[in-house]
Amino acid sequence: MSAILTLRHTPCIILLPLENGLDLHWAKDCTGQPERTPALGQILREAIMNHPVYAVVFMAMLALQPVVVSANAPKDAAPSAFPLRPQYIDVTVLETADLAARFEEVIVVDVRSQYEYDTLRIQNALLLPVTDKSFVQEVRRLRESSTKPIVFYCNGKTCRKSYDAALMAQSSRIPNVYCYDAGVFDWAKAHPEKTALLGKTPMNPKALIDSDRFKERLLPPKDFAAKAEGAAVILDVRDRAQRDTPLFPFRELRAQLDENAKIDAAIEQAKREKKTLLIYDAVGKQVQWMQYHIEEKGLADYYFMKGGAQAYWDATLGKVSLGTAKAK
């Protein structure tokens, strides 16, 4: 439950419940969808919590001015478009318009994998994967080389990597860091002229693959296996560390996502032999980026396994929970 306090001649203040208390945020008004600005909310919260004088002044404002408190505040008081923001209240975010306006004044850092970066990225972005052990060290070197603001980004609103990157930098006392949590897809839609697709800038907006186009290429494990019995080239793109048992022994090819030569060979084989290219990964997440490469190569007949190898074993053996198998 959240509450909205409306003070005369002031912005709307939104109180959001957290485990350790209330989260305060500014919004322009309380008549429509509030525009949440976490940075200002952080300043207000710290002022109230850490400085008794400010707390007294704030309480006096509440006492002297008409206040409307709603226990049933609109659900959009915490915009669902950015579901992770309430969990990262100490991270300062940049909106798309802000990043565009300051584009030449900041250092943009992509914190995803090499393969994702090579496929689709913000123009001139540097690559520093947040999963690398040397991430903080590399960010510190970057800060020592420039005083420009550092802006981290990843795939989008439900991706934690950019938030985590900002928190890791802040906790290491690296100043002037931001998070562009709208992500690369929103940026590509808004600014294709400053987006690189497969290394080419500007990108063609029509080349951006949305979720509907991706879903059209997904087959449930049962249907995928049935198609594999026919004229098909089967490709396992799991990382070596993820590979245990092949799903289609003696019938499948193997290539990691960064092994472009092997992937291209499989694509060309499918085209040459006029067969369907069937691709699966570990959990169905990595293949989405591969779709750009396949379409650039002009292959029309291809599908991915929905949920990857994990979904295949779940469908075949039943889901495993706490050491017991549960049949679907």
UniProtKB/TrEMBL annotation:
InterPro entries: GlpE_sulfurtransferase (IPR050229), Rhodanese-like_dom (IPR001763), Rhodanese-like_dom_sf (IPR036873)
GO molecular function list: transferase activity
Gene3D superfamilies linked: Rhodanese-like domain (3.40.250.10)
Domain Rhodanese: start-end pairs: 102-196, 228-321
CDD domains named in the record: RHOD (cd00158)
Superkingdom classification of source: Bacteria
UniProt xrefs under Pfam families: Rhodanese
Keyword annotations: Transferase
Transmembrane stretches, start-end: none
Record-linked PANTHER family: FAD-DEPENDENT OXIDOREDUCTASE, PYRIDINE NUCLEOTIDE-DISULPHIDE OXIDOREDUCTASE
UniProt-recorded name of the protein: Sulfurtransferase
Source organism of the structure: Sulfurifustis variabilis
